[in-house]
Structure formats: structure tokens, C-alpha cells
Amino acid sequence: MLTGKQKRHLRAQAHHLSPIFQVGKTGVNDNMITQIAEALEKRELIKVSILQNCMEDKDEVAEQLVNGVNGELVQVIGNIIVLYKESKENKQIQLP
């Protein structure tokens, strides 16, 4: 689990990122989870946007993604979810 200080650090780093995935009306599926897991391995920190036509609650979507990729939820702000997972091969982010 991330501490408050670590989450603050990651939020600051995520501020300038743009979302690279979108969750639409079909919700979260296995293919999306696989792609997000691969992106997290490369980048460690990503944003996912939830489109207005998504039928599921944003907190449920965040929980599904976190459980699916086995990562950490940094924050849900508006319709944007910020996810973090420490990379095995290319570690770039140093947590405080």
C-alpha cells in the first residue's frame, strides 16, 4: 500500500500526463486490463479517462482496474483515474 506522502508525490508527477486509455459504455474488459498492465510496466504511472457513456460507477471501474492489473490507485479525480504499479524491468519513479 502507498502512504499519503507517496500518493502526493505520484499525484504531482501525474499532473502533466494525459490519459492514454478510455473506458466507454462496454466498461472494463480483459483486453483493456492486459493493455493497461503492459502500459504500467513501461511507464509505472498512467491516467485512464472514463467516458460519459460508461454505465458503471467510476469507483467501481477504478477498483476493477486496480484488481485487474494488481496495481495501486493513486487518485480518482473527476472522470480520470490515476494508476501506479512499480515496474519490474524499467523502474523510473523513486518513491519518497
From TrEMBL:
The keyword RNA-binding applies. GO terms for molecular function: RNA binding. InterPro entries: RNA-binding_CRM (IPR001890), RNA-binding_domain (IPR051925), RNA-binding_YhbY (IPR017924), YhbY-like_sf (IPR035920). Residues 1-96 form the CRM domain. Keywords: RNA-binding. This is Ribosome assembly RNA-binding protein YhbY. The lineage of its organism: Bacteria, Bacillati, Bacillota, Bacilli, Bacillales. The gene is yhbY.
